[in-house]
Predict the 3D structure of the following.
Amino acid sequence: MSGGEWVLLGAAALLIGISKTSVGGLAAIAVAVFASVMPAKESTAAVLLLLLTGDVVAVARYRRGADWGLLRRLLPSVLPGLALGAVFLWFVSDTVVRRSIGGLIAVMVIVQLWQRRRGGMTAAAGGGGGGADADSASGAGGIPEVGGSGTPVSRAEHPLAAVAAGVLAGFATMTANAAGAVMTLYLLAMRVEKMRFIGTSAWFFLIVNLSKLPFSASLGLFPAETLRLSALLAPVVLVGTWLGILLLRRLSQVTFERAALAGSVVAAVALLVR
């Protein structure tokens, strides 16, 4: 492996760490970088181990912020998604799968932006604000806040929303390590406050990524070379998690949500062009 490739992998590992403790979706760039430097299957296994490194730090840091009600609704449907993704890969090339997921994420981003724009127009038509600026009155594109505290009001959830999100996340993570954008868009749609958002995501991905280990091991995706590579890059992931923690402290709720949406756009583009 050349020096330039090591630099790329190091930057990708740093992004993985940052995404785990601040803005999700950035890990999709890392997945694309690894796939461009390493064989596809080996890159998936190496990324999985680095994701788990970040997951452990994220859970240790944000474990108290998790919404276990949301997790209990999401997690049971992840396993069918994992199985569906594994079966699907037998019949369709990984390129088709990645681009299909990228297209779906792009559609989800567009729907999310449309809902926020519609919410902002509704709030403006209602004449609310009383001199407050647009962001503080309606959050990111119409997300209401409670008593000026900056905590969004949770949206009522359709009974099938968590099931659909869980299946899609399981499918996306099994086929392209792309569940981050799916979860980001689901939690944004639910209008989850940023610390609750990060805590819920941390537990979700630790559990999901641990559940992927037996699948990957049974396919022989953890040769000694992959394990050595992951061990060398793990400290870089840890540095990234520290940077992500510092970044999250500086992000308001509104800025966090906008950054999360931007990360989802990046994830969609990375999947479409990879």
Remarks:
- The CA atoms of residues 4 and 10 lie 10 Å apart.
- The radius of gyration is 19 Å.
- DSSP finds twelve helices and no strands in the chain.
